[in-house]
## 1
Amino acid sequence: MLAGNFYTVKEQQQEAGQVNTTIELNAGHPIFGGHFPEQPVVPGVCMMQIITELLGGSLQAPVKLQKASQMKFLTMIDPVKQPLVDVVVAYKAEETGMWKVTATLKREDKTFMKFQGLFK
């Protein structure tokens, strides 16, 4: 889990089928020592883990990515310059027992990542 170490939840609002969360990234986390020294960038795998953790927390159950139909990394996140990130995770139950998920990581007018896929 990255929550509590790599990032902390600053604010969260939940409504039916959606969770809106503002997180604060920990620019001093060891991940940034290797990704990349003197120019930290949030790895894509960490962005996906954040989505997974927020979805699982909202559903109060562990979830696992089954299929990513869209995963677009639009702008890099420098945790020093952009420590706060808004994460919107919308989900809907499918007849297959999976969750259809749409998520974005953004802040104000900057969109960092867009995702669509299935979790179980």
## 2
Amino acid sequence: MTDPTHKAVSDPEEHADQPGQTLVTRDHEVIRRWAESRGAVPAGTADVPGTTVSPGTLQLALPGSGAASDEVSWDRWFESFDRYDLRFRYREAEADGTTSTFWELDASGREEG
């Protein structure tokens, strides 16, 4: 049975069916567009300088969030995202229709986006 509160997304032109719906993706362009539309930048802390970003510190630093991680390039962020086989879960809008800044990363094995 499909959960209508979650939707897999694999293209930047796909959107939520209703406000408050959680979307999940692995598509780099979907993630980048969502983040940039909210002024977020990729961030994280490397295990060793010049290597991938530690999965536990991989962040999208939203304006005013006070993120403690260092800004990294999108290429480096996505290299870590792919290496650790993560999924990006997010909302475009909250149930009341306001723009959402909700996002989280989780391990693979869930909905494919």
## 3
Amino acid sequence: MVNLQPCDVIFVKRRRDPTFKDRIIGKLVKWATRSEYSHVAYFVAETTTFEANAFRFAGYGSLDEY
């Protein structure tokens, strides 16, 4: 595991268990940005992240989702 510090940016390629909508949106973002990453999250502390996804509210999540 990487030693993350608060406010570190986590570049996300895909979620652990993506929904169908997450897979489609992720592929569109990767295609539009010509990147291998679909979005980013910020590391908060321990296993907590903060992120904003397309068509979702911004909020806290778990590091286990990646």
